[in-house]
């Protein structure tokens, strides 16, 4: 069962402005990354549903987060069907993210007051998702659409909350461009977790990068 409802999750996402996106088949590595992000100031974390038995890893890190990262909202990403969404909700997912919009997932999530953030690539898709109760929509892939797409969409639909994922980097220039365009928050993956740093167990690097990115976001919002 979710620890945080939709409103609490959206508040965490909006307050910090960044959601790390991560997958690893080793639950112990995933725990270390999760803890490093938490110590860097992150309060919403997306574990992607990619490898075999990913749900078992997720179950492990949700239990770990309850003990070691009590204010962290735990979400699952890369969800494209309602059955998978229901599985992860039973395992404690606080929010569900997907690369596409599936209205059947929205029904599953809305029933339990779980935030569903679907991937959208047009103004119409964002509009359809909002009609289905998706308060936060994901612009994906961000590097294909760019900040001008976000800015253009926000002009006629200024009430929209948009999370950009794909092509987001922990640099002042990149983050400033997204937030000045009107992004509500961003999702960030490999740039926060370089493979060599994860392999070396350099968790201090991850913590530092998270703190640095959050500082750039706070600066861009001023």
From TrEMBL:
EC number assigned by the record: 4.1.2.14, 4.1.3.16
Keyword field: Carbohydrate metabolism, Lyase
InterPro entries, per the entry: Aldlse_KDPG_KHG, Aldolase_TIM
Keyword Lyase: yes
GO molecular function: (R,S)-4-hydroxy-2-oxoglutarate aldolase activity; 2-dehydro-3-deoxy-phosphogluconate aldolase activity
Pfam families (UniProt xref): Aldolase
Pathway it works in: Carbohydrate acid metabolism
Domain of life: Bacteria
NCBIfam families listed in its UniProt record: PRK07114.1
Family the UniProt entry places it in: Belongs to the KHG/KDPG aldolase family.
UniProt subunit comment: Homotrimer.
Protein name as it appears in the record: Bifunctional 4-hydroxy-2-oxoglutarate aldolase/2-dehydro-3-deoxy-phosphogluconate aldolase
Species this protein is from: Bacteroides hominis
